Amino acid sequence: MEPRPPAGFAPRTAAGLDVGYGERLTAAVCVLDLATLDVVDQAVVQADESFPYVPGLFAFRELPPQLAALGRLDTPPDVLVCDGQGLAHPRRFGLACHAGVLTGIPSIGVGKTALGEFEPPGPRRGAWTPLVDGGEVVGRALRTRAGVKPVFVSTGHLVDLDTATDLVLRLTPRYRLPETTRQADRLSRGR
DNA sequence: GCGACAG
DNA sequence: ATCTTGTCGC
Asked: GO CC annotations (predicted)?
């Protein structure tokens, strides 16, 4: 059956997660108020590399430090917006799925590149086309900004694709990537 | 066997 | 992911 959010799912906050690379890994999490998109909480954690980058096993590399950062927040966010795929993964279980299941927090995946096939969505913001892999619809290629390369949205945990799409559009009033991702990226670079 | 392969 | 200048466009 389709992943479905808890009854009455109406997130007030959304967290963006990202990992920056330097001498060590820098995991950052930024919690935004969905009404204002202001950062209301954040945390950073440094960690040594403990797993190589292996396509398909991305979560083994970046999730541990991200979970550590989440643990440093004052309050758990209502939904996690992950930097990578959720269901849109060869094994149907990308980073966003791991993050949601391990924390019990609803989650979605927003990738910058697609793993499956898709037709280019219309040029206008909000347009989308199905992202297909192995003959299955695993997510959506969503245009968050007119005339700019789409992002790839997929289900993580306890959130359906329509809800995930709405959420991403709410987080992209101006730029291609969600504000959550942008803020976490900024923080992971020490700013 | 060869190429592709989230970040 | 990260290394990096200028350049085109709103």
From this structure: cytoplasm
Average the pLDDT over each of A5-9, A33-37, A87-91 and give the range with the smallest value.
Answer: A5-9
As given in the structure block, the two tokens for residue A173 are 């009033």
Which residues partner with A136 through β-bridges? A133
Q: Provide the domain limits for residue A151.
A: 14-188
Does residue A4 lie within any of the structural domains? Answer: no
Percent of chain A with pLDDT over 90: 93
**Residue A7 covered by a domain:** no
Any idea which nucleotide's C1' is nearest the CA of A112?
Answer: B6
- Positions of chain C reached by protein Cβ under 7 A: 1-2
Say how far residue A71 (Cα) sits from the centre of its chain.
18
A18 is in an annotated binding site: yes
